[in-house]
Amino acid sequence: MTVDSWQLAVDSWQLAVDSWQLAVGNWQLLNYQLLLIKLKHRYPETGFFNQNTG
Questions:
Q1: Which of 5, 22, 40, 42 is disulfide-compatible with 49, CB 3.0–4.6 A?
Q2: Whole-prediction pTM value?
């Protein structure tokens, strides 16, 4: 394996890891937003969720 192909393999692997981390981050963010929505519907009387909207 030449140095160039090895470097290319490492770059591709790092790109794959970055994409995976980004996907996990988006998934966690989506779950967090869904949790906030559930809490907002479950406890509508608390003004905590309404103070930062819009």
A1: 40
A2: 0.54
